[in-house]
């Protein structure tokens, strides 16, 4: 069963050279009209159903940690739904990632649904690659909201140019990372960019780009699907923290440090 023509997920997106240059300069880019709104709306019910089915966080908001207040997080939905697999394996999205990274091809690292519930708290400042045992910085996340996302829902905020800033790369998402990076990024005078997202928009950010999100003060959940891509020729690195060790086992099963990051969960999604 499909929700839309395969063409909508496979045809190339017109990624202007200026947008690629902006991504290289800033470490992120906000792209309009990545998918037609009707395509996104067609996948949202299935993604939401899988989040409800697979979510393991059931504590009241007041009893959760800062991390758990930020969002409900469910990974590798593509393994649980043929419909979600269509979206996650989209050649259109994967080509955007490859062109922005400047590589010949990309593999899937994993997907994650990130649902910030009404009343959900801030997502503290952090860089994703703290969690990933990867040998280079050629990895990125496509952040695809599943509804129009005004500022009150807590869209991502990016510190432009922070992918070149090494302070804080040893900090997990926490109250400590929020406090320390607020100060450090301000001292570097790195602009913080916050924008609403129309349905069909997406952002793409590098693994070392520092980002944050505000609380969701709206009446409904902020529903987001993400896909993380790595260079098709990426090599797994020796984990430097316990999170990376867990990520190596979960996202790169049967792969050892120094080997190509090409486990059974990491198909090539695009090559030129």
Briefly, what is this?
GO terms for molecular function: 2-oxoglutarate-dependent dioxygenase activity; iron ion binding. The protein is α+β, with helices and mostly antiparallel strands and 272 residues long.
Q: What this model shows, in words?
A:
The protein contains 8 helices and 11 strands. It has a single domain (6-252), classed as Jelly Rolls. It has 272 residues and is an alpha+beta fold. The strands form 2 sheets. Strands 1, 2, 3, 5, 8, 10 and 11 form a 7-stranded antiparallel β-sheet that branches. Strands 4-9-6-7 form a 4-stranded antiparallel β-sheet. Residues 251-272 are annotated as: Disordered. InterPro entries: Phytyl_CoA_dOase-like. GO terms for molecular function: 2-oxoglutarate-dependent dioxygenase activity; iron ion binding. It comes from Jiangella ureilytica.
Helix percentage range: 25-40%
Let me know the CATH homologous superfamily.
q2cbj1_9rhob like domain
In DSSP terms, counting alpha (H) and pi (I) runs of 4 or more, how many helices? 8
Cα-to-Cα separation, first versus last residue: 28 Å
Count all strands and give the number. 11
Low confidence ranges: none
